[in-house]
């Protein structure tokens, strides 16, 4: 019991109160993130409505296979993260380390694929403000599509990278046996963040890649 | 905690998510006119709901968590809808 | 023990001396003091910009500063006052100090995040201050595109980065309050037994959490547009400047409620204590705070009536703006009803409370004029608007802040301020404020545009009156600055509860111990259980 008391910060009365507070805190932070991405999504919505044709044309430059693979990668990483949290809660050290490491690896794979996609965009002169040349009509609308593409996926990638960093720290601590049934809050809370980053991509994929795939 | 192994549940949820991913790609190849976006967003919401309920444990969570989980989305909806009242009604 | 010390108990101020004990503190009370010092500094910086503006406006010609410099002055005045003074003021100073105490907790939920929020504030503040000193920014605090994104030659990017950074300070503070209020209330302290100051902090925190991220991403997109020369908001490149305005005001209108709701919370505490009466209509007061917070998110288009926004959208926003006035009016009526048949003691804090009620009412009513589409066409971008929002932000929010500082000063420091000087300063501020801003209603109605450093000669008399008022106002702010500092050494010993107030925070010594309560109190009654003097004597 006294060992558990040491894991409860002085402002809290019980471990349950501390865990409840941490979870609520992360959910509130995720609400702020919804609105952070939301600002960009609102810009996207407005321009999708007013420049729908330009968006449809421009989106054909995307590689829906790579985007689809990346979506599957992130969905899998949410699975491994959920399994990691479960393992940490059960005090299963090896299992939690493996699942956390898998999540990191999948996240890194996503970033790698994203890097390939970005490189393709540079090669095709589709980077507004740096190197942009649009041969077709609606160059203004196409430019806006690509700015929003880089903003949305860029901020998403940044959040993903931060998530990988956080999970790296958790993996190291899990390896040292830090998490158990009595205390696994950091892993749970990181899991919430990771799933949120996955959900953002769940929306970005159809909005960016699947505007008009059919001919 | 019920007797069902969460591992099995998580794997089945992931399976559902892959299915929905395949579905959204398949639907993208079909010309449904203005309904393409409706279908795509509906599937995306379905995926998000699965992640929120099962991976983020909102299925077992109290009212406060559910309210906070929805709050961001609601506020985003207000922002987009009211802004569109401008963009959709200009001459 | 220093010879000037008047207390014999251990408290948060003497629990460790030296810079490290302050700069590495996680005690919410010390963090509140750190914030108080920081925002006071920025208040005087913003006031300095205003002083230069009012000097220029003494004469109709542009003889003190150039037009470009004047543009920088009003921009930097707005940016400093809004983001580095008003928004943090009551939440980060009084909120940080009082929220844990009023809910019967030992600290906020995340004390280290609390300290981090102050450091983030300082970093954002220094960044912005540096940008202002080394060139300034001239876009107005509203950063409208395409001027800010394409044509301005001033330090837009550094200022925008500073404000972006500052946003995280707001978000962390608010997150802390929401979690603390939900999860750390003392036994028996149900929601409807909470003081209205807590309800106000809760409602404000909800706004902070939901609105600030939109400001962050909007400024980020502005930065990207400016650095990379892309066209999200630039019509020449296919973008829409009104999109920027929608995104900006989605945050900035709720921001004004961030500035006023905490002051309303303070006023409820002051009126009840100094009328010795429980508040009239407690539940309506609480619900009104939540209503203002939520409906306040739906009215932002009233800043854009003449921008080119669709007239239909204008009608929707106008109607919603009328609706949002209702809960504020409910509060004013309920304060009046609380005072009715109360036993009023005219101490300084409640004098600020009275000032708030009167001036906020004027400001709020003129808001209705501005919400009226046809009227707004005439007075938009004139001094009428400036007078309106200064009545609310200075006559309302700043008076609320000062009232709160005076009310809780004995609790925070263990000292009383000199009552005579305090009353005098409150009077000077009230007179100075009205002399500064009432002429501006008239100027605006007569057609004087805002953000101009020159004006037609027939407006000079009113401008001179306004500048005279501003001078008196400035002196009025210096007086408390001096005597509050003086009181730290020479003020009377306050004791635990000099106002005989019923709040939980008064059940501790003054200044409070580090952990606030030796024993967490158990709450069994509603707040404001004041008993009339005659009943007490029976």
Descriptive notes:
The complex is a heterotrimer of chains A (215), B (91) and C (538). Chain A is mainly alpha-helical. Helices cover 78% and strands 2% of the residues of chain A. Chain A has a single domain, classed as Cytochrome c oxidase, subunit III, four-helix bundle (Four Helix Bundle (Hemerythrin (Met), subunit A)). Chain A is built from seven helices and two strands, in the order αααααββαα. Chain A has a two-stranded antiparallel ribbon with strand order 1-2. In chain A, a hairpin with a 3-residue loop joins strand 1 and strand 2 (131-132). The model of chain A has no long low-confidence stretch (mean pLDDT 94). With 91 residues, chain B is mostly helical. The radius of gyration of chain B is 17 Å and the shape is flat. Chain B has two domains: 1-60; 62-91. Chain B is built from three helices and no strands. In chain B, helix 1 runs antiparallel to helix 2 (35-55). With 538 residues, chain C is mainly α. Chain C is built from 16 helices and no strands. The longest helix of chain C is centred in the N-terminal third of the chain and has 36 residues, at 67-102. The radius of gyration of chain C is 23 Å and the shape is globular. At the A-B interface, helix 2, helix 4 and helix 7 of A face helix 1, helix 2 and helix 3 of B.
CATH topology of chain C: Cytochrome C Oxidase, Chain A
CATH architecture of chain C, by name, is: Up-down Bundle
Most residues in contact, chain pair and counts: A-B, 45 and 43 residues
Percent helix range of chain C: 55-70%
Mean pLDDT of chain C: 95
| CATH class descriptor of chain A | Mainly Alpha
Number of helical regions of chain C = 16
CATH class of chain C: Mainly Alpha
Main β sheet profile of chain A: 2 strands, antiparallel
Give the quaternary arrangement of the chains: heterotrimer
**Compute the gyration radius of chain C: what is it?**
23 Å
